[in-house]
Design goal:
Elements: H1 2-29, H2 33-60
Pfam families: DUF2530
InterPro entries: DUF2530
Protein name: DUF2530 domain-containing protein
Length: about 60
């Protein structure tokens, strides 16, 4: 079961990295602020998702 949480955390981390990369591209392209904030919020929610997934797996023993 440890590989299950590992794959979930890996997937969320990849998504967060994609949001960060999109944010960098948006900043470089001079995008509107709402697009940049969308990327920031996506990365932050991904980080929160990683933390939540790890805590939940420890609590429930998944």
């Amino acid at each position: 079961m440890a590989s299950n949480i590992k794959s979930v955390v890996t997937l969320i981390a990849i998504g967060s990295i994609c949001w960060l990369a999109a944010g960098v591209v948006a900043i470089a392209a001079g995008a509107q602020s709402k697009i940049i904030w969308t990327c920031v919020v996506g990365a932050v929610l991904g980080a929160m998702g990683i933390r939540y997934s790890i805590r939940r797996s420890r609590r429930t023993g998944i």
